[in-house]
Model the fold of this input.
Amino acid sequence: MAEQPSTTAWRRSVKLPSERGSSRLVTDDLLEQLGQHGWPPDDIFAIHLAAEEALVNAVVHGNRLDPKKSVHVECEVSPDFVRLEVTDEGAGFDPGSVPDCTLEERLEAPSGRGVMLMRSFMTRISYNAKGNSVVLEKRRGDKPAEG
Amino acid sequence: MATQRIDVTKTGDVSVVRFRDRKILDETAIQELGAELFALVEIDNRKTILLDFEGVEFLSSAALGKLITFDRKVKTSKGRLKMCGIAPGILEVFQVTKLNKVFDIRPDAAEALAAF
Done:
């Protein structure tokens, strides 16, 4: 008999070192939990993408790979809802200042797509006033918005 | 020593590149991938290249950046680059970022090869 998806919410707090590749310390468990909670592959792809972008931004741009700084991550996975909060110890940034990468003149810029991908693939994302903490939320079955 | 990230074969005049990683997200892997791709143009002087993404399940925005730079290098050297075999989720990433307007994307290798 097939295993029934878990109906209980999974919550986890993780403190990540500011080093390349550390995002896996969150994403490995997150992907496993999404599977156990019966999330469909399209949604898992979207959440994985957004989580990866948020974590890499925090480690590389936020904490600038400073070994004295950590990234704090709060995860929640339910059968129909996922929430991730990613906070770095950097100076923060203004997400409104990131240029629109879909403008004709920016299309071939090699960077600056992370925030847009998070916005497109999640139901809702929000930054704190300082700009060093982002909350990502996804409701099951939401489709990505085209840019 | 760097890990090999791609395999390159020839079909007629076209260099067909396939990726060894199912998930292209680790920054070191992306740097190594970029170096191997750029060498195709800058060292091997290849002009007609197909990137076949068959088997690739995931790539991050850092990997997109490498693909954009590679595309630009090929165009600068008066070469031609096409892509194929892209999984639906990754195709959605290309559509959301409008990179489907920058890259020449074909559904599969047969169609891409015929289009060169």
Summary: The domain at 6-114 of chain B is CATH 3.30.750.24 (Transcription Regulator spoIIAA). Chain B has a mean pLDDT of 94.
